Amino acid sequence: MKLDMHGLITTQFDEMVKFYKDVMKMEVAFMMEGNYAEFKTGGTRFAISTNKVMEGATGHKSYREKKVGQSVELAFLVDSPEEVDAKYKEIVEKGATPVKDPHDLPWNQRAAFFADPDGNIHEIFAELEK
């Protein structure tokens, strides 16, 4: 098996699509209005869908339940530690919710954390020079 797609399920479809398109500058590859959007990533596919669509597809009642806590993280790789700082500042100015400013991590990366409109916490990171 090969992982082909990462998806976020939301009750705020329009807000989430707008965030990833306008703030994160991801290009929409395919869209079913109000239900499903796929974005070009240069790697695996990334999609946003609604709870209603996923409940219909799976028949599982959990899509009607309010989510609690964090269960997914997207990590956006950039070319340099300086770019972490610049991109973080840029996306926060455009509407991303700041979570933690850029800082160096013990595993030799510089990272910053932000949240999307659903409250999912993601990161921007770059490798530090050794």
Give a structural overview.
The chain has 3 helices and 8 strands, in the order βαβββαβαβββ. The chain is of the alpha/beta class and 130 residues long. It folds into 2 domains: 5-62, Roll (2,3-Dihydroxybiphenyl 1,2-Dioxygenase, domain 1), CATH 3.10.180.10; 75-127, 2,3-Dihydroxybiphenyl 1,2-Dioxygenase, domain 1 (Roll). The strands form 2 sheets. A 4-stranded mixed β-sheet has the order 1-4-3-2. It has a 4-stranded mixed β-sheet with strand order 5-8-7-6, covered by helices on one side. The radius of gyration is 16 Å and the shape is elongated. The model has no long low-confidence stretch (mean pLDDT 94).
Secondary structure category: alpha/beta
Number of strands: 8
Give the strand order of the largest sheet, numbering strands 1, 2, ... along the chain. Answer: 1-4-3-2
**Helices and strands, in N-to-C order?**
EHEEEHEHEEE
Provide key terms for this protein.
single chain; 130 residues; alpha/beta; 2,3-Dihydroxybiphenyl 1,2-Dioxygenase, domain 1; four-stranded mixed sheet; 25% helix
